[in-house]
Write a structure and sequence with these properties.
- By secondary structure, the protein is an alpha+beta fold.
- It contains 15 helices and 6 strands.
- A 4-stranded antiparallel sheet has the order 2-3-1-6. A two-stranded antiparallel ribbon has the order 4-5.
- The longest helix has 62 residues.
- The chain is rod-shaped and about 200 Å long.
Length: 505
Amino acid sequence: MNNIFDELRSAVYTVWHRKWLALGVAWAVCLLGWLVVGMIPNSYESKARIFVKLDDVLSDVTGVPSSNKRDIERVQQTLTSAVNLEKVIRGTPIGAGITDPKQMEGAVLGLSKIIKVESQKDNLFEITATYGDGGSSDANNAKIAKAIVQKLIDIFREENLAGNRGEMSTSLDFMDQQLAQRQKELEAAEQKRLAFEASNPGLAKDGVSPIQRVESLRSELRGIDADLAAAQSALAAINGQLAGTPRNLPGVAPVGGARGALAQAQAELSALRGRGLTENHPDVIAARNQVNLLKQSAAAEGGPGGVPNPAYSSLESIRAERQANVQALTARRASVQAELSSTTAQQFSNPQALAEQQRINRDYDVLKQQYDKLLQDREELRLRGQVETEHNSVKFQVIDPPTTPRGPVAPNRPLLLFGVLLAGIGAGCAAAFAIGQLRSTFATTAKLERAMGLPVLGAISATVTDAGRALRRKRLKYFYAATAALGGVFVVLLMIEAFQRSTVA
């Protein structure tokens, strides 16, 4: 413990003995360090928060999927891209001194390091910009930091509210160009198919190949055969019912029937003859003709004492209808069979033309499908553009607008100034102690005993005259004054820093 105490006393004595050296080194280190700290520009930070609300009711109703959320994520990721940062530089005082692309690249690279765009919960975004330029005043640096954040907000709004319209218009123009190209190709394929059908009228029919027509005719023929068999079965059934149904029913014919009319006509004819009219009289001739017609009608009603059977008449009408159906199906089957035979003969007689027709139809179908798909996509894109343009569901709101910062966020100059002061004092003490260690002197008797290995009986203090004491006191005052001046410079620097902070914005 005594050794440690002696070493400490020795170190203090060594430093104090060379106090002017320590003070000079401290002044040099402090002045240099304070100069470096003074050259560090103040950095000012500006923040803003924006809220983006997604409410796309119309898109849900129309069934057209919306891309708003995807667009917002894309804008968040590309907001700090080189293109947008170049817009920020050109729209703020940063771009005043930029004249060539190389300077612009350097400015964009530096700006990308001081901008942060962070996504918080519930669609809340925070934009932060920290700016500090040694060539500008603190007030200008604070204003530029605010201008950077404001420009980023403007770009965010433009990308979300106006950027999609330009992209939608460009996409629609591209789709229209593709549709026009596909339409020309489709018209050329249509003309080629029409020319082929004109040169091969028997082979090409309604754009259907013989193979497809054969399959269609065979399928139709199978359907006709099934319908014909069912119709013939129904006709046989009605014929059986008709054979077991009597034409007339027994009984007396009603007075109002044909027989009653015949009796009345005969009575009128007898009355005309009783009036003395001859057989050549027109009235007699007309009455006689009517009697003859009524006789035929009465004979059709049945023999004496019978009436027509209504069930028989109904069955006859049903049989006539079914006979007509069987005849129509038979004729249709013969027509389809003939067409099937003709198409089959064409298929085997000209295989080259058949292959050409299949190729033309296949190309036309592919182009038609592509055109229909492009047309559907174009209409969906146009509807989406109208939804996003006329009924924009993105509600943009600035929660915390960017404000001019009142104080720098970096560097912490008072702390740096104090650190430089401590470093200067430490460097001066270290320099004095190092010089003392290089010289072969002993600050205490104990240290001399340890070094020589011999006992030290005593020590003689320095003898100083009155003039020497006065000179020593004078030099000590100078030392204290120089030390106080170092502290005064530190205090003045702190006051200057406080004044500069108060004059910002």
